[in-house]
Each structure stands twice: as C-alpha cells, then as structure tokens.
C-alpha cells in the first residue's frame, strides 16, 4: 500500500533559519499554551515532529522522553542538545507508521506538524494506538478560519473560503484546517476534547518590534483560553484524552516493528532486530525506523 507523502526536513537549517529571534514571540506563546495543557509529570512522553528538540525543557517531569522526527539530521541536533540526559531517546520515524507499542505513552505532543499531513485520519489512528487509555494528547494545528484569512477573503485577496469545512492546501504539503473539521477527525479515532487554546494572535512584525516578544507573549497568554471558542488565531491547541471501552494490554517494550507489529526484540548497539528478523539501524544514538536494513 502506498504511504501518504511526507515532508522531509533532512539536511535543512529549519532550527536556525526558521526559529530566528524574529519568532521569539511565537515560541513563547506556544510554550505558554503547552505549559497550561501538559500534565507536569508522568512515566513516558513522546513528541511527534520534535525537530531539534526546541520544546524539550517542557518535558523534564517525565521518566522517559522520546523525541521523534522524520528527519534524522534534526534529531542529531536534538541529541546534541539533550543527549546527556539519559531519559531522552531519539527516533526517526514516519507518523503514518509509528514504531511504538500499543499504549506505550502517557502523553503525546504534536506541534507544527499537523499542517504537513495529507492523511490526518491515518496519522491520528497511529497516535491513538500509542496512547494508553486516559492518556493525554496535546495537538496544535493551523487554523483555516483565522481572522486574517477571513479579512483577506472578504477583500477578495484569497480564492479559498475560510468557512468551508474541508482542508485547504495553500502550498505543497502545507494545509490549513477548519476547527470543526479537526475536532471531528479527533473524535473519530477515539479522542475526547477537553480544552482548547488559541495562540499567536499577534503575528505582526510592527507589534513585535513595538512591544517586544516577552510582553506580546504575555498578552497572548492571557487571551488564549477566553478567546479559544472564537478560534480566531492562526494556531489552535487542543487538549485531548484517549477514551477506550477497554484498555489495551500494555507490553514492556517501547517499540513495535513497523513492518510486522512484533514487540519482541533483540537489541544490539548498532541495530534492533524484531522476532521476525526485521532489522532497524541505530546510528549515532538515533533509532531509525524509516528504512530497515536487509
């Protein structure tokens, strides 16, 4: 079966060329939302699309922290940042074929990833399986029905309607989503939505220069929860919990083989080999589940 297309930041300078000082406000605003929504401690947490580990400091209340990304090069940056802390693991994987055992995690975080997903339901099904019953999923998505998009549409400066429910691909592998549509997808795979926050209201260069990132983020933080029902900001955060009629049996292994689903492993410094003989390399401290060794 053909896998959905994925965006690959391998070899890019995303962590330095995108997260410049000019985006300090956005970084601070996102951290405010995450601190408010994340359980402060737990057994095991995974961030999908963790990149270079920008948000790693928010997870230090957990016994085990897994940073996952498709791009191995960004995970090497994350390992340089967090590798001295033995609680961190670094995993290169495709969100459509996650290599994690069922019910492996208490908490899952996904920020600035959803807008790259062609098949949202397929990815969410993988995420749902990896969370224990009652587990927490904090997800951010790009909001199609934001104030700027509504104004642009009213002035006929954009062709697509911010009010229609279907996702819009405004650039290759870059999507905006209607909040109602996104909530429907989450509920379809078993999530219950507990709380919402709107973030990054003030993505305007002149405001950033006038007020400064710290002050602007503080104002943003005060508005995130009360204005969440209006969903006017370009970035939307949802706090979800996994509901199941019966808990999935937990296994000792963190990983499952993306090829066959086995959770029985033979581990060596250079590779993991599942009970059915599928070999997945471990290079420079990164578990690589994208392409298996023959």
Report on this structure:
There is one protein chain. With 294 residues, the protein is α/β, with parallel strands linked by helices. It has two domains: 14-250, Vaccinia Virus protein VP39 (Rossmann fold), CATH 3.40.50; 255-294. 26% of the residues lie in helices and 27% in strands. It is built from eight helices and 13 strands. It has helices at residues 14-17, 24-37, 72-82, 120-130, 147-154, 179-188, 205-211, 213-224; strands at residues 42-48, 62-69, 88-92, 105-110, 131-142, 168-171, 174-176, 191-199, 235-242, 265-268, 271-274, 279-283, 286-288. The strands form two sheets. Strands 8-9-5-4-1-2-3-13-12-11-10 form an eleven-stranded mixed sheet, with helices on both faces. The chain is globular and about 60 Å long. The two termini are 20 Å apart. The mean pLDDT is 95.
Average pLDDT metric: 95
- The number of domains is 2
Order of helices and strands: HHEEHEEHEHEEHEHHEEEEE
Identify the CATH homologous superfamily of the largest domain. Vaccinia Virus protein VP39
Global morphology: globular
The CATH architecture assignment of the largest domain turns out to be 3-Layer(aba) Sandwich
| End-to-end CA span | 20 Å
- Helix content class: 25-40%
SS summary, helix count: 8
CATH level 1 class label of the largest domain: Alpha Beta
> Count of DSSP E strands?
13
Write the CATH fold name of the largest domain. Answer: Rossmann fold
Label the structural class. Answer: alpha/beta
Overall radius of gyration: 19 Å
β-sheet strand percentage: 25-35%
**What topology, given as strand order, has the largest sheet?**
8-9-5-4-1-2-3-13-12-11-10
